[in-house]
Structures are given as C-alpha cells and as structure tokens.
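SUBJECT: A protein chain and its fold
Encoding: whole-number codes for local backbone shapes
Chain under study, with its fold:
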Amino acid sequence: MTESTLPRAVERTTALLDLLDVKPGDAADTFVARSERHTAPRVFGGQVLGQALMAAGRTVAAERLPHSLHGYFLRPGDLDQPIVLAVERLRDGRSLSARRVHALQDEVPILSMIASFQVAADGVEHADAMPAAPDPLSLPSMADLYGEIDHDNARHWAYSQPLDLRFVTPSIFLAPQDPPAPDSMAWWRLAGGIDDDPLLHAAVATYASDYGILEPVLRAHGRSWLASGLSIASIDHAMWFHRPFRADDWLLSVTHSPSASASRGLNNARMFSRDGRLAISVAQEGLYRERDLT
C-alpha cells in the first residue's frame, strides 16, 4: 500500500475494530451490533459472521479459543437497522465449548451460526505446505490497481476498506482470468496493528474470509466482477482455525472451486501465515444465477 493511502487504511482499521466491538444487549447473552456500507446494498456477510463470533466468544472462558464456525446466511441484512446477536450456550465440556448465535433484525434471523471453542492442547500434527508466492510488498496495492478508476466499487476497494490486499493471480474486477481457471491467490493483512486478543484476530480473519471467496467460480467461467452477468449470493460459510496467527501480519489466501452445479458453486480457501504455516481453512457455497437482462 502506498504511503499516501496508508492513513486512510488505518482509519478504516479503527472503524472495523469498532464494528466488531459488539455491545451487551438488554437480555442475558445478547449483544447489539451495527453495520457499515460495503459494495452491496445489504449487510456484508463477513461483517455479521465476525460480529457473531465476537458475541459467542464473549460467553466462553478466555482460555477457550475459536477453532471452527459454521454459518448460514438466511436473509439479506438491512444496513440501517441494528443487529441483535442472541447467543445460546449449547455445551461447556472439559476442553470444548459450543455456542449457537442468531443474528436478528426485527426479531427475524438473517444469520444462524454455530461456533466451537477449545482449550489449547497438544496432539498429532501435519499440514499442507504453503505454495510458492512472491513477497506481498513486491505486488501492487489496491490503490495502485484501482485508485484512478472512476467507479464507486473501485474507489471503495482502493481507499475505503480496512485490508491491505495484494493479488498474486491478476484481479478480475475489470477483466476475466485468461486462461479461465478455478483458482486464485492473494496476500492480505489488516492495514493497522491490533492488540494480542486471539478472539479479535479470529473475528478479523472471519470478516476478511468473505473477501473474494466467491471468485474461483467466476474465474473458472471466464467472468469478471463488472461484467459477470450473474446474480451472486452467499449461502453458507465454514471456517477452521488450525494454528495461531495475526490478522495484522500477512496471510496468503489460496482459493479453489472444486464444483459448480445447479446454480451453486463451492469455493475453498487455505490461509497460510507468512512463515508458511497453514493457519485457517475456509469453505463457502454461493448462488450463481444468470441475470435476466430482458
């Protein structure tokens, strides 16, 4: 990210941390959150997932850290209404805790999520190796790519989001991938530094995991974001947190779509810390429907 855009990115980082800082609600185990405007006229899925994880995490002991979450996007969220996060304590075992969270607007769920938390433990271990990738600072920033484009979404990606994103495979915002392939790779990090709270780092990564996760299907079919001709929506989202990481240090996201059929496409991502450790796995299924242009 260029020096001229860094102050704005740090400002947006502060805004994201405020967004994830869910407030206690009127009833026990409820929390209240607000929304921010993104590139769509509805609540950004990564935002409400991150907020739900924060709410769930505030009902478990501090030494129990999130290791997985599974959520369904049920309805589009209204940007102008508060979100009530109702947490249900499903179980507290010797080493694992499970929580269900419903994100509600007008008492109707827009997201239903279950998250699991675990006390740190030793055991068997193996992991995929990180693929080769150029140093993130050798790649152009979003401001370098989009800063001069006169388009609302381009300006948002260039100057108004809290992540420093660096594409290894070329961006498909303006043009499709050539040749088409169901794969992409990008570095990301939170633009500003944050404290050491692992729950907060997990919530930031959850927010970030919804950036570009639907892209591999577009890439496989030779579509760009501006001219995809598709109506796209997320259906469900799953994450597994394997090893400690920092969301304000570089993570390499390697994404792939193994299948698309019946208007649904599945996308997977593996996120590696800069030292090569597999930190996070992600899966999301989306709807991809041809727009009726008549």
